[in-house]
Amino acid sequence: MDAANSQAENELVAGRSCEGCTMCCKLLSIEILQKPRGVWCPHCNKKRGCTIYEERPIACRTFYCGYRRIADIDERWKPSQAKFLINYEAEHRRIAIHADAARPDAWRAAPYYGVIKEWARTAESQGGTVVVWAGPNVTVVSADKDWEMGALREDQYILPVDRRVAGGVAREYVAVEADDPRLGQR
């Protein structure tokens, strides 16, 4: 076992497992396997799991969804039941929710939506965001509004833009290309 996998395993909620769930094998992109987001991995047996488990890429070895890592959520949040998974993307300072395109609005149902809005409020206060991917379509969830961004490519970025309004500042979100100079100002 490598150090990265060992550290990830130390952060897991006791008593929770991936058993019966392969949603990460569909919802996430795996660059080294050239597997796009929202497509089943060719190495996934939906009933038994990974067919190359012992040789799976490091990205797969070290990934554990929010259900496995967040103690404050219950069994309803297991991706096989919720039809979405939660991931924290530290490099982007965001909570990413990856929804199954067959159930793109599953995250909007109770009890999920209220909790996700609270996460958005907290994330915004700390300079982060909550983003929902449903296939290529992206929604930025903020405390006050859900921003429907439409279809984005993997190489595009979501940029928060603050603009002055009467009584303060309003935050909006825009999709930008990787070479947008505003990305360097964050």
Could you explain how this protein is built, in words?
Helices cover 20% and strands 27% of the residues. It is of the alpha+beta class and 186 residues long. It has a domain of 66 residues. The strands form 3 sheets. Strands 3-4-5-6-7 form a 5-stranded mixed β-sheet. A two-stranded antiparallel sheet has the order 1-2. A two-stranded antiparallel sheet has the order 8-9. A hairpin with a 2-residue loop joins strand 5 and strand 6. The longest helix is centred in the middle third of the chain and has 14 residues.
How are the elements arranged and paired?
Layout: H1 3-10, H2 24-27, E1 44-45, E2 49-50, H3 58-61, H4 66-69, H5 79-82, E3 84-89, E4 94-99, H6 112-125, E5 129-134, E6 137-141, E7 146-151, E8 157-165, E9 168-176
Parallel strand pairs: 4-5
Antiparallel strand pairs: 1-2, 3-4, 5-6, 6-7, 8-9
Structural class: alpha+beta
Q: Any idea what the shape is?
A: globular
Specify Rg, calculated over alpha carbons. 17 Å
The overall pLDDT average reads: 90
